[in-house]
Amino acid sequence: MIRSVVVIKARDGHDSGRMGEILAALEAMVVPGRIGFWTGADLGLRPGNWDYTLVADLESAEAYRAYDADPEHNRLRAELAPLVEQIVRSQIEM
Question: I need a labelling partner for 82 at 20 to 30 A (CA). Which of 6, 15, 17, 66 fits?
Answer without folding.
Answer: 66
